[in-house]
Structures are given as C-alpha cells and as structure tokens.
Amino acid sequence: MAKGDAARWRVAPGSTVHLGKIDPRSTDGAPGDKAGTEPVLENLHGQLAGLQERLYAEGERSLLVVLQAIDAGGKDGTVKHLFRGLNPAGCRVVSFKVPSEEERSHDFLWRVHAKTPARGEVALFNRSHYEDVLVVRVHDLVPEAVWRPRYDLINDFEANLVASGTRIVKLYLHISREEQAERLQARIDDPTKRWKFRKADLVERAFWDDYMAAFEEAIGATSTASAPWYVVPADRKWYRNWAVSRILVETLDDMSPQYPPAEDLTGVVVA
Ligand code: AMP
Ligand code: MG
Q1: Looking at the DSSP assignment, which residues form a beta bridge with residue 64?
Q2: Angle between helix 150-163 and 208-222 (nearest 10)
Q3: Ligand nearest to the CA of 135
Q4: Among the atoms of ligand 1, which is closest to the Cα of residue 201?
Q5: For residues 204 and 196, what is the distance between their CA atoms, to the nearest angstrom?
Q6: CA distances from residue 41 to 27, 113, 135 in whole angstroms, order as listed
Q7: d(CA 112, CA 158)
Q8: Which atom of ligand 1 is nearest to the CA of 108?
Q9: What ligand is nearest to the CA atom of residue 196?
Q10: I need a surface site. Which of 75, 165, 201, 224 has the fewest CB within 10 A?
C-alpha cells in the first residue's frame, strides 16, 4: 500500500484553515477516474475489514471517527460506504440530533462521552460535539463566552480519550455551495429522497458563509497531532469514498492491532 496519501488531507496543528482555497471537486491523488478507482476501493474495503477484525480481537484500543459536514454534505452516504468494509459487530454509528431536554441539562460533552467506543470498537459519529461550536455558534444558541472556550474543552476531552486508548480521526466533508444546491434539489424532486429534506434546510443554506467561518475556526483550533482533522473534497462521491477509506486504512494500519496471544493449546483436541 502506498503510504501517506492521508497526509494530503490532514490539517496540521495550529494552521489556519481556508476552505475557500480547497477545491471541493478535487480528484488529486486518485488512482484513476471513477471506474478506475472502483477496484482500488474494493481492495481498501478488504483491508479495512481485516484491520477492524484485528482491532476487535485485540480488544485493547478503539477508533473514533467523527463526521462533520454542511447539510447534504454526504455524511449518511459516507457511513453507508464505510460499512461495506466494516463488520457491524464491533462497529457503531451514532447520530447526534438536536439535544433532548435531558441532554441539555448536562454539559455539552455528557451525551458524547456516553457514546465513545469501548475497547475493540469502532464508532462512527454522524455529527458530534462539534455541533456545539458550529450550529450553536451560527444561531447564537449560547453566547460566545460559552462556545469559544469549548475548543479547549474539546481538545482536553479528546486528549483524555486518546490517553485511554482511543484513536481519533475527524473528517470534514467539503462540498461546494453549488453541489449542496443540487443535492437539496434532488431531495425535493426524488420521492425516495424527500424524507431527508426539511424546509429548514433552506434556511440553513442561507447561513452558508457563517457555517464556513465556523468550520474553518473549529477545524483550525482542534486539529491536534493526536486527534487530527482531515478536509476531504467531497463533491465527487467516488473520490470522497476513496479518500475516507484511505484515511481509515492508514490510521488502522498505523495502529497495527494484533490478535491476542492464544492460550497454551498444546494437546488440546475437540472431543
Ligand atoms: P440531521 O443530521 O439531518 O438528522 O439533523 C440533525 C440536526 O440536529 C441538525 O440540524 C443539527 O444541526 C442539529 N444538532 C445536532 N447537534 C446539535 C446541538 N448540539 N445543538 C443544536 N443542534 C444540534
Ligand atoms: Mg438533515
């Protein structure tokens, strides 16, 4: 496997993120066009499956994948894609919605901490604690004096998870405003996609620039060496799928999970 593709999308700690300078339609580094990339993807799924099985068997460490994007950015599609290479035993998807009354009566990390992966597990977060510095900021749900300190609180929280054996990968799916328009329109036009559409999505779309500013600042403030952000160009779904598979395979490969040592089975025969 060619090493280091994932570095292409990784956000260096302390850097300033300019999403406007990253082309959402990029296909940089792809092994081919859409059709040419398909067999590579198949191979990556196989690798992912093998690595996940070892992580599960090892039972010592875990992987947390955070997925964030604007509405229609491809979070659901990415989850579906990744599951082609993941065994549901040992893997969980957690979707974070508007906090319930009970969730709101605790600190913002309470509901998130409860869903972090146990040893051996992979957890895919579809939205996450980052909503508390994104939608919350864009809509002034709490004052800046409350959300701004959350960057540090998030970094501390993630450092605590890392110290306890969780590897963290954070993926920002980067789509263009035009692509979002197409996807939202498709949700209106296609009866099988209409369930995903809410009129409120159009209200949210009007806050595009505010969301981009919030994403840029959040990603810049929380991309750390041990819990990096990756900005994945995501207008082309096949490229996005290849990129996220690469990132996960490289991450798990680097973790190098091992089957636990077997008990001494000398002379043991099944009767
Ligand atoms: P969806 O992902 O389309 O099912 O929508 C989930 C909704 O929940 C989105 O509009 C999010 O912005 C919203 N949401 C998720 N987390 C939070 C949060 N911590 N505070 C406010 N809204 C949130
Ligand atoms: Mg939605």
Answers
A1: 123, 168
A2: 50
A3: 1
A4: 10
A5: 14
A6: 15, 32, 33
A7: 11
A8: 19
A9: 2
A10: 165
**What is the helix (H) or strand (E) element at residue 78, kind and residue range?**
helix 75-82
> What's the half-sphere exposure (Cβ side, CA atoms, 13 Å) at 109?
15
Q: Are 249 and 48 in contact (CB under 8 A)?
A: yes
- Tokens 């009566």, residue located: 105
**Are 238 and 37 in contact, with CB atoms under 8 Å apart?**
yes
- pLDDT tens, N- to C-terminus, the chain (271 residues): 456 789 999 999 999 999 999 999 999 999 999 999 999 999 999 999 999 999 999 999 999 999 999 999 999 999 999 999 899 999 999 999 999 999 999 999 999 999 999 999 999 999 999 999 999 999 999 999 999 999 999 999 999 999 999 999 999 999 999 999 999 999 999 999 999 999 999 999 999 999 999 999 999 999 999 999 999 999 999 999 999 999 999 999 999 999 999 899 999 999 9
* 132 residue type, one letter: D
Beta carbon of 132 within 6 Å of any ligand 1 atom: yes
